[in-house]
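Try it yourself: sequence plus S-adenosylmethionine, in.
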Amino acid sequence: MYSSKRNMESNTTEVSVHSGMLKEVLEGLGKTQKTLPSKFFYDKRGSELFEQICELDEYYPTRTELSIMKNNIGDIAGQLGSGIQLIELGSGSSLKTRLLLDHLPNLHSYVPVDISNDFLSSAAEQLQSEYPNLEINPVSADYTKPFDLPDTNEGIRRIVYYPGSTIGNFTKDEAGDFIALISELIGKNGGLLIGFDLIKDRETLIAAYDDEKGITAQFNKNILTRINRELDANFNPDAFDHKAIFNEEKSRIEMHLVSQKDQTVYMMGSKITIAEGETIHTENSHKYSPESFREITQPHFRTEKTWTDENELFAVQFLTKKHSVLKD
Ligand SMILES: C[S@@+](CC[C@H](N)C(=O)[O-])C[C@H]1O[C@@H](n2cnc3c(N)ncnc32)[C@H](O)[C@@H]1O
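Structure, out:
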């Protein structure tokens, strides 16, 4: 199902993430409600800006998820068990992973998977210097497309770690499909440790995606700078405003870029017209209750345990693969 190529020099398995970028970008910008896939935020600069977002007072998810992990690490590590292959989807700087690495006995290997190739390579290099005895096999890939995992011996249990409420970037239908894909990836006895963001008051949500220092605005506009560089386009990022709204019906934060004026943009022979006030929808971040999250996981997984913080802002959950659709 998955294909990839191994780069022996950098020890990173690479899958071309650029092929198809132009097609996906033009497809999104051709819609009535213009969209851009949020995965294209993450070039090196985008990943660095995301790291800055994680430090912001307003951005509660990172520190809350980290505190849940810290407060329950013994229990979490016990659920995951020993001798596993730990596969992290959207690993970024592997910040929360260090806690797991410190507490998982006899880890078989760690496989960080990320679309942000350069950032992944330096994060993996840094991690290897901190954990010299750990086998680290980074995979540079768009995980929504087919990719290979490094081989393991039969019998090594695969656990996917998917923190950061990155699952929230998918619509509910897409999230259900992606959960099905994870269940395929981990094989018979695998598990899933996942972080998801809980529904909360609108004010807290909006502030987290529209901070006072304007870092999230820079992050949002960086997608245009990246498209200019990689797809030979001529967007003027300063001619757009960053906007975050809470879509209550869909239980999600949406990030948009609002055009300040009528404008025309050219990209590799294509012409895109954007009217004043028109928006490009760049990101969704869906918020769940434990019940609504169970709706997307239960066809494939059994919920073993859920941990949350005292204010119930965020949840971390461990799930194991169902062997029978009738059992939960
Ligand atoms: C919200 S950040 C979370 C980072 C980190 N896991 C955390 O919890 O702080 C999303 C991460 O997923 C990566 N990512 C987003 N879409 C991806 C895709 N389609 N394939 C692979 N990586 C992706 C980004 O590069 C980024 O590192």
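One thing you can check immediately is this: The chain has ten helices and 15 strands.
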